[in-house]
Amino acid sequence: MTQNAERTLPFGAAGTTAGTGRAAGADLFGASEQRTDRSEEEGRRRRLNAWRASDRLLWRGSADGRLGERLAALAADAGAVHDLDEHVDLYGDGVVAALEGRVAALLGLPAAAFFPTGTMAQQVALRCWAGRTGNRTVALHPLAHPEVHERGALGAVGGLRTVHPTREPRLPTADEIRGLDEPFGTLMLELPLRDAGFVLPEWDELVDAVGAARESDAVVHFDGARLWECAPHFGRGLDEIAGLADSVYVSFYKSLAGLSGAVLAGPESFVEEARAWRHRYGGLVFQQYPAALSALLGLERELPRLPSYVAHAKTVAAALSAGLAEERGVPWFRVYPDPPHTHQFQVWLPFDADALDEAGLRQAEETGVTLFRHWFPAPCGPPGVSATEVTVSAPGLAWTADDVGTALADFMARLRAGGERGTG
Length: 424
Fold this sequence. Notes:
alpha/beta; globular
C-alpha cells in the first residue's frame, strides 16, 4: 500500500557560481573538473548504448538515434508531408511557414510563429504581454519551466518578475489566483506541470483559473510544450483547450519526436510583435527545414497516436503500483499521478538515485529490457527519495501488465543485489 509523504517544494537560493580568479590549487581543481566531465560523458554514452540495444522498452527517445539513421529516416519520410521539390526555406518562409499555418489551424488561433527553442518562444511571449498590459509581473507556478530550467532568464533578459499563486505540486486554483496580494499582467499555466509529475487540473478547474485571471484584467499564456497529450484528460479538442488562452506555445520534440523547435500562437498583431522580438533574440534562423519537416511528420504520425499512449500509460502505472505493493523491502513508494493524466508520470522510491540508475542499466545491458531510464532526487519529496519519469509511447503499447510486473521484479532484484554488493 502506498503512503503519502509530506510533499514540500525545494525552493531556496539558486546555485552560485565559483569565481574566476586563479589561486593555489586551481590547476588541480580544473583537472578534477575535466575528470568529472569525462566521467559524465562516459556515463551518458553507457546509458545511450544500453537503451539503444534494448529490444523491450516503454519509449524510445529521438536522442537515442544516431546521425545517419535520423538523416536517412527524415529523407525517406519527409515527402509524405511536404513537397520536397520546393526550394529550401529562407528566414522562415516555405516549409516553415507551412508548419506555422498547420499549427495555427490545429490550435484554432489566428497566427503562429516558429521559434528554434521553446525557451525563446516563451520568454518572447511573456515580454510581449508585459508591454501590452503595462505590468511586468507574471503569475506562475514555482515549478514552471521558466523558474526551474531557464537560469532566471525572465528577470535577467526580459526584466520581468514573478509571483506564485501556490506552492502546492499542482496548478493554482481560481481562489489562489484571486488571493494574490499584488496585481499581475500575465498568468502562465504549464499544461501539464512537468516537474510536479505531469499533472493537470480538471477542465472546470482550468476554466475557473482562466476566469480568475480575466477578473484581474490579466492575460493568460499556456506553456503547452506537452499540450498535445492533454486532450484525452480534458475530453476536449486542442482548439478548445488553446482557445481558453490569449497565447499558446507548443513544442515538437517532447511528444512528437521532432528534431527541435517550437511554435508560439495567438492573435495576429501579437504574433507579428513576437516575430520582431524573435529577430532581436537571435531566433531568425537562415534555414530550418530539417526541424520543420520533422515537426510536420510528428503532427502527421505521432499526434493521432497520443490518445493510445495516454490510455496505455494507465495500464503501465497500475501494474507498477501493484508490483511495488508486493515487493518486500520497499517501505514506501509512489506512482504519481495515479492514474496518469498524460502518457507520462513519475515513480518515487526511497533509494539512492545512483543505485537505482545502476540497477536499470544492468537490466538493460544484460536482458535487453529498459523499464526505467534515469533517476534523480524527487523534486517535491523529502530527502532520500528518488524519482524517475516514465513515458509510454509506441514501443510500450506491446507491454502487458504482466510484462511490466516481470520487468519490475527483475529490476528490484538487481537493486537488492547491488545493495548487498555495496555493503559486502
